[in-house]
Amino acid sequence: MRTLINKLANEKNLVLIDQAIFSGNTFVSTALLARFLGVENFGVYSSIVLAIYLLISMSNALIIQPLQVAFGKFIDIENYKVFTLFAQLVICILVFSFGITIQQVAPNKFFSLTKTDLLYASFLASFWILHDFFRKLFLAYQRIKKAIVIDSIMAGIQLLSIIGLAVFRLLTLNAAILVVTLGFVISSIAAFLIAEIKFNRSFFSREYLDYHISKGFLLLLSSVIQWWSSNLFVVTSGVFLGAAALGAFRLVQSLFGVLNLLLQTFENYVLPKAAKILSESKLEAQNFLKMATKKGAILFGVVLLPLFIFSKQAIVICGGPEYIPYSYAVRGMVILYTIIYFGYTARIPIRILTLNKSFFIGYCISFAFSLLTFQFLLKNFGLSGAIFGLVVNQILMILFWRSKLTKHNFKLWI
Questions:
Q1: pLDDT in tens, 207-233
Q2: Cα-to-chain-centroid distance, residue 326
Q3: Cα dihedral 72, 73, 75, 80 sign
Q4: What is the reported pTM?
Q5: How far is CA 266 from CA 259, 279, 297, in A?
């Protein structure tokens, strides 16, 4: 029994446990909302979530991504953590203020959102971003048990609330936004209490600010381009194909949300360790990344193969019979995510070598292709065209990054 407990307490296993909690909650809660909100309301909820993902991506570019590769750069780590928390809180306040401003000046209907929807969405965005910061902070500093605690709190509140509202037929769009927000609020408060951040008056340093501005500027531009590159086809599918198609596309993407979060955790866990190893030996960093990629491929294969084989059954289980006509999109997404995963063999080395300009240009190439082709692909091939466009996006970006890594003599193994 003690041996089993020790194995479970292993750092890698703890990361997987945390990811299982976070991904499992995302998958189950999204499936429940897709089923009980209906296609139209789920499409509106999905549009809010897409916008929040953009904000999280921008926030990560300024705070989390520079933090992940900051090991060994600063002597006073405690002061640095306080600085990043303060900067994150400023961003959350700005996000909320921006949302309230839109809510005040927008007409009664703003892209299918009412003023009440916009108000609730502002709260959701602010606390979702804050939870994301604490979670990735704990992962970056190998405080995995704390990440598990806050993700468990968040998941428990959200799932129980959604199920309870669904049982009593009270699960409206606004109610869904509120209970999801509640989970992030309470988990963020818990994270703040267990973070053990030691406040003092000297936490602000021009060195920290200059570092995040210099490293974060291109990453911020990249995050915006990356979001549009990844989501232009999704957003415009609602315009060209209708709200039902947008809801269906988002449900299919949600099926792969587990893989998205696995990819994020893979990056959040592997990237800081690889950066630390690189400071000692390039060869050791290459070997570490090679081993991590091979192990991760097994896990991804276990998830992707059943989804490809049982695509129709998967979409019915998640959304119900009304989504059957879109089951073909599941197989297309399996192909896409296979390419995305092996693209991390280029993405992570680009990050740890801090080739931020190349990182940005890669997404510019991808976005340019999307901008030039999205209308033609959607009008002529529907969701199949959207998935094809996303596949080509990834291939173009990976090829560019690999060419840059070759010039920097960073050995590629795939």
A1: 888 888 888 887 888 788 878 877 888
A2: 24
A3: negative
A4: 0.77
A5: 10, 20, 11
